[in-house]
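FAQ: What does the model actually see?

It sees only this:
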Amino acid sequence: MDLELRQLRCLVAIVDEGTFTDAAITLGVSQAAVSRTLASLERALGVRLLRRTSRAVTPTATGLRVLAQARRVLAEVEDLVQEATSGHTRLRIGYAWSALGRHTPAFQRRWAQAQPGTDLHLVRVNSATAGLADGACDLAVVRRPLEDRRFESAIVGLERRLAALSADDPLAPRRSLRLAELGERTLLIDRRTGTTTPDLWPPDSRPATEETHDVDDWLTVISSGRCIGMTAESTAHQYPRPGIVYRPVRDAEPIAVRLAWWRDDPHPATQAVMELLTALYREG
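And it is asked to produce this:
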């Protein structure tokens, strides 16, 4: 069975306008064309959709159900067209945990000032590509290299690596920490999107690990004191939480912040985003 969008539009127009004549005017076709299109839709479905009298056209019970589905299909098609043609007017930037940390408000304000014709939307998607692979965003902020060759990326800045501890942890009063002080603790990690693994420590002093898959769960477990975390400094700005303290780890290498995009279909605003983010991180 092959249904056509023109058939669904015809059905909706007849019901909305109330007559075949008015539907024809709305659709810009002849009344005979409207009658033929409706008949072809009823034949394709094998059901009667409308009751037609000298005074009115009304949907049958089946017609009401088909009409509701037709409206949804047409709305989704309109969304699809908008999605495909709005590349210059909308920009979605995905992130897994912490967007751009303390730079997030400045980025949003400066973007609105410099690019008023392109609406910016930040989208949190907890996946390795921050939603880029599944079409949830146009660009992505990621904090570890993407191995998928479909994507290109560039480093826009560096962030310190912080330990996340419960507020009553014995190490919480310290202003900064070293890796050796954390090696005997249990490290809570997210293998899909996290920035730290036990490989950050020397082979003979790596911490035990537990896994989580969401930042809220990560924070909840750490606040209980059962585990510690290691994260980019942007997390501390994005998720200040009672019961959690963040402390710099002096001898841990910084985390590279990358902007990622589709290699063969970059968003038109990619270069502008890269330049603005680089400037923000350079300003510190």
